[in-house]
Specification:
Beta-Lactamase, elongated, single chain, 7 helices, 6 strands
Length: 254
């Protein structure tokens, strides 16, 4: 039997991992597995919202050992985001505790039919971010037969941490793309400056020779100084664009 200390330890551990995680999926698999274990339930899953198709899908699910085959089937399932208790939680932005889903008009049996599961009791909490709802997190079928109100409070707290993880991963992905774009721009500008610098240097050399001035004065001519400066700046920008002067890889999470 789990205690409040077990739940607090899980929340603490997830928060600690948030500071250093490198793979979002790995963190979510850990969170769903430990939540299922802490609540002594048959399954725990994250249902993300496909905003374009208005559908739920199951990117991460943790099932008890006796139901391991269900995880693969869940990964292939999609259903309308206005269906079931999950759809109600999403639209109302409110968590739900249902200990007898068979007698709840909101329950959607399509997932059970496709996975040969039998859902008896269910906890569901929204994953809400500043940019809108990401989906929901569900826990089903506790060994005790029924969930309690403090189970729902715990799941809501965990949902907040999961949202933070998603936002952090999205921010890193955005920064990763911006770094790539900036490096491409630096390379393009660098090659352009280098080419202009070479042309100016060649022009200065030809002009210098044309007037038969001493070669020692060549590097003091304005055209040569400008050309050499442009070449140097171009080389610097190319180096930045290639990542030679900064870390070559930006952090990114899936």
């Amino acid at each position: 039997m789990t205690t409040a200390a077990d739940r607090l330890h899980l929340l603490y551990d997830v928060n600690r991992r948030l500071a250093t995680f490198t793979e979002l999926d790995e963190l979510l698999r850990y969170a769903t597995r430990r939540t299922r274990e802490v609540l002594d339930a048959e399954g725990c899953a994250i249902l993300l919202l496909d905003a374009n198709r208005r559908e739920f899908y199951f990117p991460i699910a943790s099932q008890a050992e006796a139901r391991k085959g269900v995880e693969a089937r869940l990964a292939e399932i999609r259903f309308p985001a206005d269906r079931g208790i999950a759809g109600w939680v999403l639209s109302q932005d409110q968590a739900a505790l249902v200990n007898d889903v068979a007698n709840d008009a909101r329950f959607y049996s399509g997932v059970d039919q496709q996975t040969s599961m039998t859902t008896r009791a269910l906890l569901c909490a929204p994953l809400r971010s500043r940019g809108g709802s990401l989906g929901v997190i569900e826990v089903v079928n506790p060994a005790a037969g029924a969930f309690a109100n403090d189970d729902l409070e715990f799941l809501e707290a965990l949902a907040g941490d999961i949202v933070v993880a998603h936002e952090k991963a999205q921010l890193y992905e955005q920064l990763h793309h911006e770094v790539i774009g900036l490096r491409q721009y630096c390379r393009f500008l660098g090659w352009g400056l280098a080419a202009v610098g070479v042309l100016l240097s060649v022009g200065a050399t030809i002009g210098h020779l044309a007037v038969s001035l001493p070669l020692g004065e060549l590097f003091m001519r304005p055209g040569m100084l400008t050309g050499m400066t442009a070449v140097a700046l171009g080389a610097l920008l190319i180096a930045v664009g290639q990542g030679w002067l900064v870390g070559r890889r930006a952090p990114s999470q899936r």
